[in-house]
Design goal:
This protein has 497 residues and is α/β, with parallel strands linked by helices. It is built from twelve helices and 13 strands.
Length: 497
């Protein structure tokens, strides 16, 4: 009967399933609460007051000597007496870890580079122990620096330099294992000679500190020319390689160096005045060098532009050969001297005329403006078209007794007849008397002032320029305000602005 009863229990699938589910639930519960401590296991609780939470989370481990002795079960804010805010940790230790001496301390330390933390218990030596629930206070020194805080010490420039150093040192050590091994093998012999050297360097008379200070200044000054100096070191390596190929010549050079240096010392002493003068010249050359640096690009562009024309110059020179041969033949001709002399005399004759007539063209623009007056002159109309605006005088007769007749005993009431009007004054300023719109009411010496007659060639004052002219004679042009050879000519009238 008993066998039958036991078999019946195990054969019940509902009971077996319920037991299996119960076991799974208990296992999941224990696994879920494993970090907070297993149930029914005696624990020992303490409180820890720290400056901040230090990125701790409930469930972080408490370790002593590298072994886990408990967990952090709760983290809560805390307001201190001085009104500052901190954090309070609830530490649940295994019962086997207690009691804890009263002078024990804690530290928050990183467990990995990913930010995981744990609390380290540093057990003290006091005979007094901390009762369960008491507090341990820790200062700022209990918090380990964060990895991000360490990296924040380096700004972007420092990080770039560290990266460059790692790259350059890596390149320096790459493929140099045999050389490094030889260097390590030679280090013992080298280090035996180091103490005497250190004693010499330690001596104040050696002035090692000023040497490094000046070395730092030299490095700061030469930093902008690092690439140029690197090229110099590469060239120096080639030079030393060439010297190593002939040790005998190098030995001879070294033996001759002391007397050479003695001669150089005396020569340099004599060159001090030259060096002082060179120092003053160097300041001027520095400014010139800066100007050359700015001028070099346009000069380079100009030289590049001149390459193509210069390549065509030989062909041009060959074509000019015939031209210069013809000029040579003309110069050797017997009549050339006579022709040049005659041309010189002609130019001498024309020079006064051009100086007088030049301002009429360059200042008053008389050549072009005259066509305007020509158009105005032919504007009267008759039965066949347009005729000149001119009144022809007829013979004196009874039938022709108007103002236009030759027999009149008094001048025509209106006349504008200024011949040879000026173009400029004695100073070269515009005085265009011909070609202006409008004229004075009366300007005729010896004529009744009541008649509106203008006949004198010179109008008082400067009349200014025409609407298409210039205010004065162009720079570099010689001129004369009156015809040369006239009784009124004055050498002061010849001007060159």
């Amino acid at each position: 009967m008993r066998r039958r009863s036991g078999s019946a229990v195990l054969a019940n699938p509902v009971l077996v399933g319920a037991v299996t589910i119960l076991v799974i639930v208990v296992a999941v519960f224990l696994a879920y609460n494993a970090n907070a401590g297993l149930p029914f296991v005696p624990t020992y609780e303490l409180k820890a007051n720290v400056p901040n939470g230090a990125q701790l989370v409930p469930g972080n481990e408490i370790r002593e000597g590298g072994f886990r002795i408990g967990t952090v079960t709760k983290i809560s804010p805390q307001v201190r007496k001085d009104k500052t805010t901190g954090a309070q940790l609830l530490l649940k230790l295994d019962a086997a870890a207690g009691p804890v001496p009263a002078d024990s301390t804690i530290k928050v330390r990183p467990r990995s580079a990913l930010g995981l933390k744990y609390v380290e218990l540093d057990r003290g030596t006091s005979k007094d122990t901390l009762p369960e629930g008491s507090s341990v206070t820790a200062g700022q020194e209990a918090l380990a620096p964060e990895l991000q805080q360490f990296f924040n010490l380096f700004d972007e420039r420092t990080r770039d330099n560290v990266q460059a150093n790692l790259t350059e040192f890596g390149n320096a050590f790459a493929y140099r294992g045999m050389s490094i091994n030889r260097a390590l093998a030679s280090l013992p012999r080298f280090l035996r000679t180091v103490p005497p050297l250190m004693l010499v360097l330690k001596d104040p008379q050696t002035r090692l500190v000023p040497f490094f200070r000046e070395l730092a200044d030299a490095a700061r000054v030469t930093a902008p020319f690092a690439r140029t100096m690197a090229d110099g070191f590469r060239a120096g390596a080639d030079t030393f390689e060439a010297l190593a190929r002939d040790p005998g010549a190098l030995k001879q050079t070294i033996s001759e160096s002391p007397p050479t240096l003695q001669v150089g010392t005396r020569a340099l002493r004599n060159s001090r005045p030259f060096l002082r003068s060179l120092a003053s010249v160097s300041d001027d050359l520095r400014l010139a060098a800066a100007e050359v640096r700015r001028s070099a690009p346009p000069i380079t562009a100009a030289l590049r532009s001149g390459v193509a024309p210069l390549r065509q110059t030989p062909a041009l020179n060959r074509r000019l050969t015939g031209t210069f041969d013809a000029l040579t033949a003309l110069a050797r001709s017997p009549g050339s001297d006579i022709g040049v002399a005659g041309l010189q005399e002609t130019m001498g004759t024309l020079a006064p005329l051009t100086r007088y007539l030049g301002p009429y063209v360059t200042v008053c623009n008389s050549w072009n403006s005259s066509f305007t007056f020509l158009a105005d002159h032919i504007t009267d109309q008759d039965q066949t078209g347009q005729v000149q605006r001119i009144l022809a005088k007829g013979p004196s007769s009874s039938e022709n007794s108007g103002l236009g007749g030759f027999g009149q005993g008094f001048p025509i009431p209106t006349l504008h007849g200024q011949a040879y009007g000026a173009a400029v004054d004695a100073g070269g300023n515009a005085d265009c008397e011909a070609g202006q719109r409008g004229f004075p009411r009366h300007l005729a010496e010896g004529v009744d002032p009541s008649f509106p007659i203008v006949g004198d060639s010179v109008t008082p004052g400067n009349q200014g320029t025409t609407f298409t002219g210039r205010p004065r004679v162009p720079a570099g042009q010689t001129f004369s305000s009156v015809p040369e050879g006239s009784p009124r000519i004055n050498p002061g009238n010849l001007r060159t602005p």
